[in-house]
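[retry 2/3] Stage II sporulation protein R: previous attempt timed out, resubmitting with same input.
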Amino acid sequence: MKPQAIIYLLFSFFVLLISWEDQGNQAIAAFHQEVSQEDAIRLRILANSDSISDQKLKREIRDKVNASITEWVTGIESKEEAMTIINSKINEVEAIVESELTNQGIKQSYEVGFEQVDFPTKLYGNLVYPAGEYQAVLITLG
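[retry 2/3] Stage II sporulation protein R: success.
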């Protein structure tokens, strides 16, 4: 085979590969829906460390807090009303964290707040939350 033919085949393969990647990216973008920072209230839990036990604790607290917040805001029509309800129940969020720590026999400090928090880009199913500041319940463990 002539060297020119090999170069042509390699170039064609390269163009095909780039085209295929681009189509995949377009399909992913069409499937996902971006959530705006103005519409979202998020939950952020910072674990004490990256250890397996600390990450497990973080997930367990997340699940319990998320279930409670979902119950509180079900049927709410506006972000402002949801913010008011969540802010009024921060003591209950603290109680959930305290209860989970106690149930697991863990003695560590924690903080709970409802404030503007920086987030990285995150994908949940087909929802994309772009990086940025969101109103959030922030739980810091340890």
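[retry 2/3] Stage II sporulation protein R: The chain has two domains: 1-31, 35-141.
[retry 2/3] clearing retry counter.
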